[in-house]
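Why show two proteins at once? Because comparison is the fastest way to build intuition. When a single record is shown, students tend to memorize it. When two are placed side by side, the eye starts asking what differs. So, the first record is below.
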Amino acid sequence: MKLLAKGLLLIAVPGVVELALLGAVFDTQQQTAQSAQWVSSSKQILYQASATMDPLLREAARLRTALIVNDVSFTDRPAIWVDLDERLSHLERLVAGNSRQVRRVHDMRGAVDSYRAHAAAVVAASHNGSSLAPLIASERDDIPAPIALFHDRLDAFVDEESRLDAQHLAAFVDNRQRQQITLIAAVVGSMLIWALTAWVFARHFGQRIEVLTGNAGRLGNGAPLAAPLRGNDEIAGLDAVLHQTGARLQTAGLEHESLKARLEARAVELAAVNEELRQGTQENEMFIYSVSHDLRSPLVNLQGFSKELQVSYDDLRATIESARPPEPQQQRLAAVLDGDVRESLQFLRTAVTQAAAIIDSLLRISRAGRLEYHWQRVSVGQTVAKVLDTLQSATRERAAVVTVRDLPPAWGDPVAIEQIFRNLIANALSYLDPARPGRIEVGVLEADPVDQAHPVGNSTRTYYVRDNGLGISAAYMSKVFRAFQRLHGDVAKGEGIGLVLVRRIAERHGGRAWVESVEGMGSTFYVALPDQPVRMS
């Protein structure tokens, strides 16, 4: 049987018993409430019945007094009869369920009506001047016949209600005792049935859960598991899963040891490869530096020789002009000198200048990877202000508006960080769209941990330089941070190494650099720099 069925059974049995007990409690409570209502009704009936006799007797006394003094003016009181009628109507409603009492009320009403008619006859005779002797003769008895009848029916009515009141009170006391006994029995029975349910649960489920918990602990500690539980419920299923997991863990442990050994060997190999790559990188940087440095001498010679050739060209042309050769020869020599020789000299000087710029760029890239940094806390706000001071002429020339947000400090080399923002802001100024006013914004994003591709444990702040310039096409995004790659070569001068230096410096600081751009709308260059001392691996 599944746990759900067992649980429902354990809940259903006590629930049925409790419902039966609650039914008995509600039944006795309803009987007690009914008895209390009957007692209250009997008391109210007796009170109403006792209050109906006095008004009638007072009215009879007034009538006799009026006959004796022969003045019936103060007996004409219709309100007393209205009050008596309302009292009897109320009394009739109270005993509506008892036909015998209803008949008695009707008899009392008839007696009241009869005496009311007699009183009305006395008043009418007095007003008409008729003789009151016959009416006075009817009042000679101690109690007039209608009032005697009313009194007799009222006494019978009160006796019956007193008897019923005693019965109702006895029934109320008996029902109250039964209610208390039933309530106590329900509470005790509920406690007993739930105690029995808890005992069954603890005996059946508790033992099985204890075995399951013990197996889970043994599995966590790597100890052998106890025998599997019997049955087909969920607890037995979990225990079976624990046994299967234990078997798989043993197999996985053996595989883990083997994998650990392979990983350790691989780690040794990777460390060796990383050392080779580091040495190779250093060798490449040294090679680039050496080659670039060595190429400077031939370039200097080429520049010197190009100048010598230019001087020789000028001397040769002056000599030809002073010699004044024949016109055909002069034209031929002028064509050679002003055409091929002059153009060749121009190409030579341009090529030497370009080669020198490329060599200088290579040297700058090489030095960016070999310079020793002086680590300290750098005020980025002051650094950006310094850069903007040096770029004031370019800013005015481009009619650009530069907005600088609050920039928190970074951890790094002051010169290197200044070079980052100089290249980024200069790049933004160079590639503004001349068709609209230029806007440049320098700010910072919220600090975020550096991604997994960078040294673990370093936290960074991401600074950005945003512009509304020409933007970068999607096809060119992968080439932005490559050396000598220039998207808009006709817009700005340079060799295309500024962004390469930005990325190289950021990576040496344990951060990174990237760009987001939409062609025709502008670009945002991001650079993540450490905000605390870095831990370089």
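Second record. Ask yourself what differs from the first in the token line.
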Amino acid sequence: MNQDLDRTPTPQDLDTISLQLGRPARDVVEIGARCVCGNPLVATTAPRLSNGIPFPTTFYLTHPVLTAAVSRLEAAGVMAEMTERLQQDPELAAHYRAAHEAYLLERDRVGAVAGTDGVPEIRGISAGGMPDRVKCLHVLVGHSLAAGPGVNPLGDEALEAIRADWTTDRCWCAGAWDPEAPVPSRDLSRHVRRLAGERNPVMTEAGAPAAEAPPQDAPAGRVVGAVDCGTNSIRLLVARVEGPTGGAAGGSTGGTGGAGTVRLVDLHREMRVVRLGEGVDATGQLSEAALERTFAAAEDYARILRRLGAESVRFVATSASRDARNAEVFTAGIRERLGVEPEVISGDEEAALSFAGAASVLDPDALAGAGTPAAGGRDRTVLVVDLGGGSTEFVLGTLDGPKGPQVLEAVSVPMGCVRFTERHLHGDPPTPGEIAAATADIDAVLDEVEAAVPLGRAAAVVGVAGTITTVTAAALGLTEYDPAAIHGTRLDLGTTTRISGQLLAASRSERAALPYMHPGRVDVIGAGALIWSTVLRRVERATGGAVTSAITSEHDILDGIALSQLA
């Protein structure tokens, strides 16, 4: 353990960690390592969380710049090379096993300090893949920083490898998070809308949430819950259904106004950046740290769903869990925490749900003039683009078919803001060469899209998900993230291209300082904006200049997941 710091966490430390992570700090026993300025770098966490869940990751990286630097190193394929060296180098393997034993001793000490010692579920199990392989560099780096040099050899190597992006001898805090922002808590966050404060959960002896009766003031009408777990974020919608509920699943129950349609009234809508797909493109599996972040959010979502009396819940998982070799770990963890089976849906169904959600709040008459007169008879055909972290869905459909919104063509492609950041944009800011390589890759993917979806038939484009709403917030010059101001905004191609260029040219610290920027999007928004502007240029070309703008929608696949339960 590094003795040259005050390990006792202060209230200011806990607030800083919450701002760094974009979620409430939980069960922090000590500050394992600090920046030269005193801010936390590593949160030392109790081996059993206060909700009863065992937590093997004792040393948890919190600093956004450090975390991003380690993520890029993971994406470069270093973990596979380290694991191979462990099999070939007995001396390194012995040193790494000693690090494993040291980690277990420290966790026992921390558990004794926290009063949660004796966690049989994780006895003998450390983290990060120790002692035989490497599956999470964040854990190894956290251990090295907390223990000091010479304890964890591969953690020390990783720290040396990221020296161009982060070092221990200088402060990297400026712009890494907004110290003036409201501190995330269970009651308030810039990116959370809530009805009321949450209650503490009732826990079973096994540590799983117990069933709770809805509160006395539970809303009237059927209440449904929807969870969308993507590559970058996990989102929750709890909504009350108003209107008839006899339509078909997927999209026909979503009305656009008028008699006989259904609408959802939001009771709670929340997004958390958990980076479930962190490194999947390079390693082929979900990292331990990413799973822990996702499970922590799922635990909180379970409490909210119970409090608001959700009668049914659908949990949809997308690109990252489709791609991962260890997807069964994710499935079991979600089942344990939420009591529902996560559905790893196909790209086609993901596209249909995205269209249903966007269509549920769009007015066909308002979209009729979206294109120029050259759009001709196509003025009721809409292209919905759902730009995610690991994949993007392109869905062409109509809003006013005989049975409601109808999908005509759809495709899901492995292109997203996290995937393309990890693959191409490593500089701060990215170099012209990196941007050119990313653009060429985007164009190649769009060639595949055009072969599957006739983009030229679109008379209007609707963009959904966090990248597009953030680009819109930038174009509007918002002083905070405001969904009401963003929803329904139409941006022309010139504006989108200009904003894309600005976000790509900005450093991470400059992007982090933007008042509407979620901390979890700071390092990936450049790739997302580049994808979005390139998509719109392709649509302009495909339509012969008839469509040169796009509408931003705050309603998307999450709303479609909720509506799909009304069949």
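One difference worth noting in the second protein: The first strand starts at residue 28 and ends at 34.
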